[in-house]
Amino acid sequence: MSIQIACKNVSLGYEGSIVTQDLSFSVSSGDYLYILGENGSGKSTLVKALLGLKPQISGEITRGEGVAAGQIGYLPQQTVVQRDFPASVREIVMSGCLSKSGLRPFYTAAERASANAAMERLGITGLAKRCYRELSGGQQQRVLLARALCAAGKILLLDEPVTGLDPKAQVDLYEMIGKLNSEGVTIIMVSHDVGAAMRYASHILHIGSHKQLFFGTAEGYAKSSVGRTFIASEEAENDD
Amino acid sequence: MTEIISTLHEFFQFSFVRYAFIVGLLIALCSSLLGVTLVLKRFSFIGDGLSHVAFGAMSVAAVTSLTNQNLIVLPVTLISAILLLRTGQNTRIKGDAAVAMISVGALAIGYMLMNIFPTSGNISADVCSTLFGSFSILALKPSDVRLCVIMSIIVIGTFIFFYNKIFAVTFDESFAKATGVKAELYNTLIAVITALIIVLAMNLVGSLLISALIIFPALSAMRLFRSFRSVIICSAVVSVVCAAAGILLSILVSTPVGSTIVVADLAVFLVFSLISKAVRRSEK
User: Fold this and answer.
1) Domains of chain A from N-terminus onward
2) CATH of B2-274, one of 3.40.120.10, 3.30.70.270, 1.10.3470.10, 1.10.10.10
3) Cβ(A49)–Cβ(A99) below 8 Å
4) Which residues are A18's β-sheet partners?
5) Is there a contact between A98 and B168 if contact means CB atoms under 8 Å apart?
């Protein structure tokens, strides 16, 4: 179990204003980490920092081998542009290989093979020639997962991946992500769905406004006061 | 039919007609390539905005009686394109508003300057020809044609070389950035070649109709095709065919070149829309 990403007393924010501070946690290979937090608690800022797109204000982020900035498979939230984008599934999955191609204008045979393997792994080989915008929400997320796998095989960072999916598709996607995790892919999931977190996560990082509320194993979270309060409040909300 | 062919044959004896034909097709090809990206990035109106900037810059050039207008038009348009496309996402004035603001502002300044410092007797004719394109495409010098060919080769070459990157940045900028693709750089590149095309196309269809060259072929292709590559190829073919038809038609029935091309594009768009409706109905 080698540590892939470790954060020590990290503070994040924009010029002059700190969004969240004193984050200390680590992710080891094979972990399934849930990052929980309310809207505005700095989850998306943390995502940018983990991806290496935004430097931290203070503190230290260390990265293990093979998980440098640009080597994390990222599943962003869907954008408006993508909903009516004319692109085949294969074209989208292939674009995950771009990070390794430098200035070379065309894809190599090895890159094509890795795209095929990623599609096979996610069970979307049959969709390769279909148009992305005509797929269901769950299928679209699988395509984007395959693309993320092309970019990085060791660690995936998923930003609210089940938003907008129907319950059946949500379960399917969770199971697919769980399968990848059991095959050794480290998963970092940003979410506010504490129920799913309790079912799937091995570790939980809970950030509140301006500070870290909890980091530890999922079992530990369920027993902690922060965890109990949050779980209870979510359950109350779902009962309404 | 033979009559038409002989008329055309006669016209093609003139070098200026051949020049117009070459330049027209090249510009149509370049603008359609970029059009797909611009439409998908929700920047359909960038053509309109930038061409008005170019119009403003042109009147400054006219007033200061610069002999080579491109010296001032090209840099001004380039800078505006980069500012508009790069800061589109994060500025306080959002993309569409910024485009509208710059476009109308430049148009007003240009028109005002042309009125305060008139360079010829007939201002409204000058303005009209800059906005709707003039027959100036039929008065191209060999040096203009050479410039246009070189610029088109640069645009097409850049597009092919960076095709995969342009696709990635258009489809999903945040993913591209996260995996280490220099999205900012490619956005700037797209802005630069857009500006090049617009400055080139001003001669052909005028600044009001440039948007049509950029938008219509892309929209038509998106009706029928479902992968990025086929949309690009179809859009290029549609654009070149429409430009050829428009130029030939305008020679035969002596209509304005620019608006004839745009009407041809519009007709293709309508036909493609009908076909896509029919296809979708038969699939159900």
Assistant:
1) 1-6+25-53+65-72+154-240 (3.40.50.300), 79-151 (no CATH)
2) 1.10.3470.10
3) no
4) A13
5) yes
Contact B168, B181 (CB under 8 A): yes
pLDDT of residue B153: 92
Tell me what the pLDDT averaged over chain B comes to. 83
Cβ neighbours for A65, distance < 8 A, ≥ 6 positions apart: none
Query: In this complex, is the C-beta atom of B132 within 8 Å of any C-beta atom belonging to chain A?
Result: no
Q: In Å, what is the CA distance from B204 to each residue of A201, B46, B246?
A: 61, 18, 11
What is the biggest distance separating any 2 CA atoms in chain A, rounded to whole angstroms?
55
Task: Classify burial at A75, counting beta carbons within 10 Å of its beta carbon; exposed 0-12, middle 13-18, buried 19 or more.
Answer: buried
For B:158-187, CB contacts with A below 8 A are: 160-165, 167-168, 170-172, 174-181
In tens digits, what is the pLDDT along chain B, a chain of 284 residues?
778 888 878 878 888 788 888 888 998 999 999 899 988 887 777 777 888 888 888 888 877 776 666 778 888 888 888 887 766 555 555 667 777 888 888 888 888 887 887 766 666 666 666 666 655 666 677 887 888 899 899 999 999 999 999 999 889 888 888 888 888 888 888 888 888 888 877 766 677 778 888 899 999 999 999 899 999 999 999 999 999 999 888 888 888 888 888 899 999 999 999 999 998 888 76
CB contact under 8 A, A81 and B170: yes
Tokens of B117: 């410092």
Which of A46, A77, A80, A95 to mutate to test binding with chain B, by most B CBs within 10 Å of its CB?
Answer: A95
Cβ(B62)–Cβ(B43) under 8 Å?
A: no
User: For the purposes of burial, counting CB atoms within 10 Å of the CB of A99, is it exposed (0-12), middle (13-18) or buried (19 or more)?
Assistant: buried
Helices (H), B162-182: 163-171, 173-178
Given a contact cutoff of 8 angstroms between Cβ atoms, the answer to whether B124 and B116 are in contact is: no
Q: Which residue ranges make up each domain of chain B?
A: 2-274
Contact A88 B40 (CB under 8 A): no
Question: B220 CA to chain A: closest CA distance, Å?
Answer: 12
Name residues of chain A where pLDDT drops below 50.
none
pLDDT in tens, A182-192: 988 899 999 87
